[in-house]
Amino acid sequence: MLGFPLPYEEELVYSTIARARVHFCIQSPKELLDEVYNDRKVVATIDFPSHLQKIAQHYIARNISVEKLIYRHTLFPLYAPFIPEKRRQQCMEWLRSSSKGSVYLSLGAAASKLPQFDTLRYCPQCVQLQLDKLGECYWQRSWQVFGVECCLLHGQAISTQIPRHSFHRHEYLPATPKICALVHQKTPTLNTLLIAHQVIELLSRRAQVSPTLNQWTQYYKTLIRQCGFNNGENICYPAIKEQVLSTWGKIWLDTHGFRVHDEQSCWLRAICRKHRKSFCYLEHIVLLNSLLDNNWSINQVLEQVAHYPKERNVFVNREKKSENNASSAQRNLWFQSVRKIGPKQARQRQKALYAWLYRHDHDWLLAINNKYKRDRRIINKRVDWPKRDRVIAKAMLGIKNEICENLSAPRLTKNWYLSQISNPASVEKNMHKLPLCNQFFNKYSEGVSEYQTRRLTRTIIRLTRLSEPIVKWKVLRQSGLSEERLRPVTNSVFNYVMEKYG
């Protein structure tokens, strides 16, 4: 695509494509996708856009790589330092090609406790500066980050009327003076400014190897000890909890999805322990700001974390320890228990023995446990699946009979039928147990050719009733179709109808 606009500093890829739509005067969202991606199925994504390899191809002469697009024009740098390196590389590969939602799952954004903004946001004075300097405005990525509720220079961010997840999910909407009006901004709070400062530091980072979970564990363990919130090797969780509450306030924490409580599942308790999963950028900022002084920097923290060992070397000279310390009596005790009741039950009943063997005879313990490992899969017999299969299939047949004569109905796909019944997720998840439902979908789900034919039929009937001439271009336009998009079967039916009635 010749003349594709260059991204401005801190501009989202979404915004660059939206500006391209304005520059080339493209009205149709699908036509824009054809021009940019050569693919009509790409979803307009704000935070983690995929197919960036095709975007980078427009900048071959400018030497703008995919990695540069990811780290300077998406929200990926917010999550990259806090996930394992292997996952970071995989996410970058998905962003390079096709993601299909995998990036959101892998980064934890899909199931995150962070509530998301419903609409796009902007800073009015920044937009005015963009107009004065560039002659156009664009969506800046720091405006769309949850937790960053202000601009560091001007004040509180303002919400627009443009939804983040629009019904028209293929449409790129540009920032314009009409949408981003110049309105009064409130003065931001101290907490808001602090988060904005740390987030902008994260967004400014370039591609680097991510710290491991062990490095984060060791860093927080050292930091908690330095702050005096420890009792020997144990953490004083009540003291840390009180420190976080006094720093941020209960109302702010609850509003932003970080409710602090005494249960074992609390995020604050988990982040202070051994890290078995990744935590989001805002969880790290909340805890670090509570433990460090006022001049702390997230970049300095990441540099310190990188100096810790990547893996915990617990079992040094394992074979030597095993030879010197392993007791045949203790081995025999564990062997008898494992052979009789399995490793899991033996571990629950003989915790001290298990702990001793784990420390002093680790390799033998794992070998014997794997040898006598028991399959404890539980078969759920609470649901009568044949009965449920009959009930659901009968219900969907009723839905099909009610709508079969409605030519204005949406495409009758499997997902559409499932959306008409209660608890569709359960049905879709257990489809292998529902043979009648499978037969129903195979027989009555509407393909693209059938749906196109129905749309053409609906238009021809309406034109006939209105006594209007049946012209090819008018039928296609009112049907929302084009000759290029018609499937072969639909095209042959349409040509036959036009020869006979056109």
From the structure above, extract its key features.
26 helices, globular, mainly alpha, 6 strands, 5 domains, 502 residues
Count of structural domains: 5
Summed up, the helix count is: 26
* SS elements, strand count: 6
Determine the N-to-C terminus distance.
Answer: 38 Å
* Largest sheet, strands/sense/barrel: 2 strands, antiparallel
Beta-strand content bin: under 5%
Residue share in helices? 40-55%
| Spatial sequence of strands, sheet with the most strands | 1-4
Rounded average pLDDT: 89
User: What integer value in Å does the Rg equal?
Assistant: 30 Å
In one word, what is the shape?
Answer: globular
Structural class designation? mainly alpha
> Low-confidence segments, ≥5 residues, pLDDT <50?
315-324
Question: Would you give an account of this structure?
Answer:
The structure is a single chain. The chain has 502 residues and is mainly alpha-helical. The protein folds into five domains: 13-190, no CATH class; 211-305, no CATH class; 318-371, no CATH class; 385-446, no CATH class; 449-501. Helix content is 52%, strand content 4%. It is built from 26 helices and six strands. It has helices spanning 13-23, 29-36, 52-56, 66-73, 85-96, 102-107, 124-134, 190-203, 213-227, 237-248, 250-255, 267-272, 281-291, 298-305, 318-325, 328-341, 343-349, 351-360, 362-371, 385-403, 414-419, 424-429, 435-444, 448-465, 472-479, 488-501; strands spanning 119-122, 150-151, 155-156, 158-163, 230-231, 234-235. The strands form three sheets. The chain has a two-stranded antiparallel sheet. Strands 2-3 form a two-stranded antiparallel sheet. Helix 24 packs across helix 25 (472-479) and helix 24 (448-465) packs parallel to helix 26 (488-501). The longest helix is centred in the C-terminal third of the chain and has 19 residues, at 385-403. Mean pLDDT is 89; it is low at 315-324.
